[in-house]
Design goal:
The structure is a single chain. The protein is of the alpha/beta class. The protein has a single domain, classed as TIM Barrel, CATH 3.20.20. The protein has 14 helices and eight strands. The protein has helices at about 5, 10-20, 20-30, 35-45, 55-65, 80-90, 110-120, 145-155, 170, 175-190, 205-220, 240-255, 270-285, 300-315; strands spanning about 70, 105-110, 130-135, 160-165, 195-200, 225, 260, 295-300. The chain has an eight-stranded parallel β-sheet with strand order 7-6-5-4-3-2-1-8. Helix 8 (about 145-155) links the parallel strand 3 (about 130-135) and strand 4. Helix 8 runs parallel beside helix 10 (about 175-190), helix 11 crosses helix 12 (about 240-255) and helix 12 runs parallel beside helix 13 (about 270-285). It is globular.
Length: about 325
């Protein structure tokens, strides 16, 4: 499945026109080609059956570890839990120094300072970003003023990345201009921090809506587009991830700019992660196989990656106590 043929006449100037006002944005969104549901799901399923040789699997496991946004987003999060999470992010396997560190630690905004402090005590900690969820995560139900304050608080505390949620109610009501403007304002509030825009695919109801939301986010200045908060079902399905990667690919073809993509929600096993990397390779290409352009939001995935890595290395699984419980 590809939309390239439909986009061959689209120029960067068309994207500028789409940003001019709500009528222009709505006109642009209405001209996006519809999604072939059967074709999309069939291609995602076919790519999910690709086999990976043992030698390549070892490299891909390390790549997947380096792409993880190690996440804790619970009301019961404490300074101690965040500190432990950061220690694991820096040294995923204390018995094997060859295991790479993860890309980022993702926490609520009020835990950013704790994460920065914990990472600063490790030699490899400077290479790990701190991402903060913001804009009334996970519901997005707050005024723009509150969302911007939420964002600025996290940035002031040292957040390197902001994961914002769009207003799904506004989007599903057809208020595309409101969604666009909120993303723009949050992007400005981010300053130097990178912005990941969470679409919450499980609530958008159709593939066409996921495609439209992806383009609105990119038009408004997203550095990454992200599937989900991880709080709803049907988040990072292979079809949803493929569709969003296609949007990133098509954006690059038109503008020359590379937008990152982050699946989150339901990615728990090494097999799940390998499917994601195959989707990237086959859709956006190997240039996206880097933590700067592809992340995996997860809280439990890392343990399985470590267990599978250990089996490839030693030929057998260790007990579940080989990895820490976070």
């Amino acid at each position: 499945m590809t939309t390239a043929a439909h986009l061959v006449h689209l120029a960067a100037s068309d994207l500028e026109d789409a940003r001019r006002d709500e009528a222009s944005l709505r006109s642009f969104i209405s001209r996006l080609p519809g999604v072939d549901k059967v074709g999309l799901e069939a291609r995602a399923a076919a790519l999910g059956t690709r086999s990976i040789k043992t030698s390549a699997k070892a490299q891909l496991i390390d790549l997947a570890i380096a792409m993880v946004d190690l996440t804790t987003l619970e009301g019961a999060d404490t300074t101690g839990k965040v500190t432990q999470l950061c220690a694991k992010a820096v040294t995923p396997d204390p018995l094997d120094a060859s295991v790479p560190a993860v890309a980022a630690v993702c926490v609520y905004g009020d835990k950013v300072a704790d994460a920065k402090a914990a990472l600063s005590t490790h030699p490899r900690g400077a290479g790990i970003n701190v991402a903060a969820v913001a804009t009334a995560f996970p519901s997005g139900r707050a005024s723009l003023a509150v969302k911007l304050l939420d964002t600025r608080d996290a940035v002031d505390a040292g957040a390197d990345e902001i994961d914002m949620v769009i207003d799904r109610g506004a989007f599903l009501s057809g208020r595309y201009g409101q969604v666009f403007e909120e993303i723009q304002h949050v992007k400005q509030a981010c300053g130097q921090a990178h912005l990941k825009v969470i679409l919450e695919t499980g609530e958008l109801q159709t593939y066409d809506n996921i495609k439209r939301a992806s383009w609105i986010a990119m038009l408004a200045g997203a550095d990454f587009i992200k599937t989900s908060t991880g709080k709803v079902p049907l988040a990072a399905t292979p079809a949803n991830v493929l569709l969003m990667l296609e949007a990133c690919r098509d954006w690059h073809r038109v503008t020359g700019e590379k937008i990152g993509m982050k699946p989150a929600g339901g990615i728990r096993t090494t097999k799940d992660a390998m499917k994601m990397l195959v989707l990237v390779h086959e859709t956006t290409g190997d240039e996206w196989l880097t933590p700067s352009l592809f992340r995996i939001g997860a809280s439990t995935l890392l343990n399985d990656l470590l267990m599978q890595r250990q089996k490839l290395r030693d030929g057998h699984y260790s007990s579940s106590r080989y990895v820490t419980n976070d």
